[in-house]
Write a sequence for this structure.
């Protein structure tokens, strides 16, 4: 089974969307195998966004600083989801990074609407509710960064008999 990381960002928590978002993943047959609410420090976010995601390298230090400022507006909730091709499924369900461009029916398309242009003009991060691992390699590195092996659980869910081949 493939695992992926999602992080519910401060704007999702502050808006009271945590249950709604997690329910969508559970209804799709994904299994929560780890979760925690934390407020990471600079080094933790640096490792996540740069060492794993290469945000500074790809998009610049200014984008990283704006993102970090937004992420520090409150705690986040990190989850590990498990399921068949979970990385691709979660990415599809979340929608594109820019909420304005996210399709209706996706999490960002249904609950956010800010554009990159608007956020850039205001010099703020784009409140897009959720982080989802970009590919399986990134997911493995992110899960290992956010969770120890002892924090990840293995159990059978009732969904598994209906959503996975035997």
């Amino acid at each position: 089974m493939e695992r992926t990381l999602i992080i519910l960002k401060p704007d999702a928590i502050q808006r009271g969307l945590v249950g709604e978002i997690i329910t969508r993943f559970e209804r799709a047959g994904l299994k929560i195998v780890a979760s925690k609410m934390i407020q990471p420090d600079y080094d933790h976010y640096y490792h996540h966004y740069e060492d794993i995601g290469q945000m500074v390298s790809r998009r610049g230090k200014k984008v990283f600083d704006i993102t970090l400022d937004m992420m520090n507006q409150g705690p986040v909730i990190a989850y590990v989801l498990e399921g068949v091709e979970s990385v691709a499924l979660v990415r599809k369900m979340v929608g594109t990074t820019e909420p304005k461009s996210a399709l209706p029916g996706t999490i960002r398309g249904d609950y956010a609407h800010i554009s990159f242009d608007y956020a850039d003009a205001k010099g703020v991060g784009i409140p897009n509710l959720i982080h989802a691992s970009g590919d399986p390699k990134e997911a493995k590195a992110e899960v290992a960064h956010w969770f120890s092996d002892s924090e990840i659980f293995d159990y059978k869910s009732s969904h598994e008999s209906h959503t996975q081949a035997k």
